[in-house]
Write a structure and sequence with these properties.
Length: about 140
């Protein structure tokens, strides 16, 4: 049984040093022994087996990230519902109102996102069409 602080943490230090040495050796050996073949296919972006079209530097719509955040919010809600369901009988009415408050707050956030148009993916296209029509009317006048 280790008695001092150094005796307790020495195995952890050894493991970290061995991990660093193995990682460094793998990277070093691959740099020394690996083949260097320049191929245009190798430098093209991978898109799930499909041939890439357009530039890889294209901007993504912010809506992709907003949907990902919505998913995370509801995923966290589901994670909190499991332990609540397990101890619900022990906490009785307190747990019910606590979770009711939590669900109401999450639904308020969902309602806010809905009203802001985060879930309406065709809104940008509709507004772009309206802008084009208004711009054409100004040019004609």
């Amino acid at each position: 049984m280790p008695t001092t602080y150094a005796d307790t943490w020495f195995p952890v230090l050894v493991q970290i040093l061995i991990a660093i040495a193995v990682a460094g050796a793998m990277i070093g050996l691959s740099a020394i022994l690996g083949r260097r073949v320049k191929d245009p296919q190798k430098f093209s972006p991978y898109e799930s087996g499909m041939k890439p079209i357009g530039s890889a530097r294209e901007r993504f719509s912010v809506k992709f990230y907003l949907v990902a955040m919505i998913f995370i919010v509801f995923d966290i809600e589901a994670i909190f519902l499991y332990p609540w369901a397990v101890i619900y009988r022990q906490l009785k009415l307190f747990a019910f109102f606590e979770m009711l408050l939590f669900i109401v707050l999450v639904l308020c956030g969902f309602y806010y996102m809905w009203k802001k148009g985060v879930l309406n993916w065709s809104a940008d296209e509709q507004h772009a069409g309206e802008r084009r029509v208004k711009g054409a009317g100004k040019r004609a006048a």
